[in-house]
Each structure stands twice: as structure tokens, then as C-alpha cells.
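Q: Is it fine to ask for two folds in a single conversation?
A: Yes, each is treated on its own. Send the first.
Q: Here.
A: Result:
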Amino acid sequence: MKILHLIYDHINNPWVGGGGAVRVYELYKRLSERHHITVVCGKYPGATDYSERNLDFHFVGTHKNNYVLSTFCYAAKASQFLLSNSKSYDVIVEDFAPYNPLFSTLMTKTPHAVQVHHKEGINLFKKYFIFGLPFMTVEKFYPGLFKNSICVSEASRDKFGLPGAVIISNGINEKLFDEPGFHEEDYISYMGRLHIHNKGLDTLIKAMQMTGIKLLIAGEGRDKAGLLSLVRKSGVEGKVISKGYLNDSEKKDFIGRSKIFVLPSRYEGQGIVILEAAACGKPVIISSIPELKYAVDAGFGISFKTGDANDLAGKINFLLENDAFRKALGQKAREYAKKYLWDTIAGDYERFLIKVMGGQNS
């Protein structure tokens, strides 16, 4: 099977590099043992085409150091690539983002599907005011144009209004289970893309004014300078430490040695990092958005009112003061995470693609 996947994001993209890019890499790294995959991503400074086994990454757009220009140039160039090459593939997957829809369902007769992650909704208007309205319109109607669609959670499927979408969860690397346990150190952790509004980092920094523990932040992103400025203005420089990008082994230690993992996002798809924290045996504190509620339902997380720093600080302090309860949540987390290995998820995804192309595996 020859697969074409269209996604702006890439794991090394300095502006985004989020869960969608991780998902693409982990799934296709496994499927490349049996199939040939081309992933078309947006260019960023230093991006060059490369291959791993039968997995080819091709970058289109502009090398200029400008995120907005990069994402719009990607939309134009990726659409051009699609028009010129779609007949060379057996199945096409478009990763949806409201900023760069490629209209693949209108541009090709090759069997195709759309992958959706999280819905921003009114947050687009809050971020961009009237300029966010076109993106809100695209987000509301575009995924419904596709006959075949994938969502990472039931909550995302419901928000997008796609009752026929197939649920294929995100996953985690089995190596996270190699370590039988971690020695707790005196900090709480956040890891992910440094996007202040999306990830609720403003709420988290404000909450740190009301706690007595350190916060270690791992990740990169276009808001890094703004985040460091916010930390200074909030007077928590001695309590909040940026660790930058971490590789897989560093990431495991970073999460595993923390007392609590916090994800205060205003919107998410499913949150791969929540599953990773669970695999490390960590209790999680999450915002009260439907997409993250599964951590509470599974018994390893507690939630706070989204955007409410006082409530978040209260939940952090509660877990820090209740060692036995905190550790009990961590034990439940590790058991839950064992159901979400990338090898299993890749098999589900492969069967979906075969079905999309008509059940013929070539």
C-alpha cells in the first residue's frame, strides 16, 4: 500500500511540533515495515527531505523564519503536490487544521480520509477576534465534507459532529514501562508545546504564585520568549524552570521523578502526554475540558475549572498534601496506560486505511 499523508506539523518543527506530528511519526514508523509512506509537511528553517526505511518526509512551503507565512505557503504547495501526485498513491490522509485546509476530498479521486484532533471553536475568535471567523467557519464545516474520518477520542468526535468517524486513539511507547518505579523529587511537571493560550500556561504560571513547590517545564514552541517573560512578570522565576526540548529517555525521567503532571489546556485532542505521564505512574491534574475527562473517569486524574488559577493551585496543593492518595492515583495510571501502546494503535490504523481503499492491500 502506498500512503500519502498531508500534515503541516513535524516533530522537529520549532513552532508547533505537537501531538499530531508525534502520532504521524509513531504510526508510520511501524507501518513502513509493510508499506511505503510519504508525509508532506510544512517547511521551517533548516528543514530538509529525509527518509527512514520506507517512510519519506517531504517539506514544502518556505524556509523563511515566519510561522504565519510558513503555514499559508504550505497550504499552497501541498495542494499543488496533491494535484500532481495523488494518482501515485493508494490512499491519502489529510491532517486537518483550520489554518491550512487542502480540500483533498475535492481535488482527488484517490480514496482519502481526514484526521481531526481538537476543536478550537470560540477560542479562535478569542485569539484573533474578527480575523478568527474564517477559521471558525472552516473548522465547523470542513471535516464534514469527508466520507471517511478519524478522531482520537469520542469527545472530539462529538465536538466536530462526526457521528460516523472512526475512533483511533493516540498511543505511547512501550519503553516507558521499562522503569519499574521512580524516586519522587520535589517538583511538578508540564511537558508539551509552548503555546500559552492553547495549553493554558498563563493559568499554570498564575497558580504557581499560590503553591510552595517548583514547576519544571519541558518543550519548545513559538511562545517560549513570551512564557519566560510571563514567568518574570509573575514573580515566580525561582519556582519555574524551563528545561527545553527533551529526548525520549530524558522525558521519561523528567515526568517520572515529578510528583504530579499538570496539563491545563484550554483545548486538546486527547493529549498524548497524559498517556505518557500515566505510563510513568504519575497522577495528573487536567483542565475540565471533555477531551481530557478520560483521566478522571479512569481514576488517575483530577480536574480543575479551565482557566481558573485558584482552583488549579488548590488541586496541586491537595495532591501534594495527600501522599497516599497521590500514589494510589499513580498506580491506577500505570495500569490504564498499558492499553495504549503504539504497536496496537498502528494495527487499528492500518486496518482503517485498508478499509478506506476498498479492502485491497497492495
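Q: Second one now.
A: Result:
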Amino acid sequence: MQPTPRCARCGLRTGLTVDCCGECLRDLPPFLATHCALDYGFPWDGVIARFKFQGQVELADALAMLMLRQPPPLPESTVLIPMPLAPERLADRGYNQAWELVRRLAAALGLAARPDLLQRVLETRSQAELGRSARQQNLRAAFMVDPAHRHGLQGRHVTLVDDVMTTGASAREAAACLLRAGASRVDVWVLARTPAPPHGH
């Protein structure tokens, strides 16, 4: 199966595979590459909603397998980190869907997985209802690396894992936080990437 042409940096669907799309050239993300399995849309949006909001954690097995199709090579020293949830949201949902993916990816790839390195310390407004600039403002200081575990990041190649990337605002803030704490490089792996809106919308 031919891979979907995407921007190598942010994972956005493009006409041709490019190292950097126009959006990334205008505002370069702190992460260096994005690997995504599919575009966010029918029928996957319904499957992801069941996995994320309706307690169907068992879907993580099949969804992680999708992410392992044609994966980019990762150094053996790579540590996989889930996009964290704020404590209130985690308590409400009962699990972090990104960690459910990370556990399976790490086991399949033989890599380290650390759910304790990156924390979400601010409960922010839902990103879904916000525009791009508002999303970035909404996330200021939302993430923190636990000082007790900071040594686990020093010089490490980090792969940040999430279920869906929409504008990339969360990934940008989380990656910047990880780099400030000593990571040498941050890449992003997501199950699904939201396509860019049509021009004029």
C-alpha cells in the first residue's frame, strides 16, 4: 500500500511528500518529525471516539497495530512518552488513551516507555472548541517535566505519542517542554492527523 503523501515534519496530508510544508516553514515546530497512521475522519473518528470516551480500551491493540505499519526506525535509546492528561480529566476518564497506545507500541518495538516523565499540570479548556492561536495560548505552561525524573530525559531521543493531532498545538508545547528539560530530540507519533481545512474556510 502506497503511503499517503505528508509533511514529514507535522504529518499533514500534502500533494507530495515534503520535508516541511508551508505551515511548518512559517512556524517551525520544536519536534522534528511526525509519524501518523491515518487521517482523522470517517470511519476512524467513530472508532477513536469509542476508544477515547466510551471505555473501549481493548481497541488499543488494533489501533497500535495500525501505527506500526511502516514505522520509521527509532534508535534503541528512544523513550516513548504518552501525551499526558490533566489529573481531573484522567480521573474522569479512568485511563489515558495515549498511554494505552504507548504500552503496546513499546512492547512491540522493544523500547522504553515512561508515563511519569511529562505531566499536564493545568486543566485547560477543551482544545476542540478553539482556533489555532487560541489553542497555543490555552496551553501556555500546561506541561511540566517532573524534576525527580528529569535525569531520565538527558540526551534521550523522545517519541511523544497521542491519539489525534489537530493543529499540533499540544505537541508543540509538550515537545518544547521536553527539550527544555534535556531531551536531545522529540518526534511525534499519532494514530490520526486531522486534515487541513479547505481553503476559504
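Q: Anything structural to flag on that second result?
A: Two points. The chain has a mean pLDDT of 90. The chain has one domain: 39-193.
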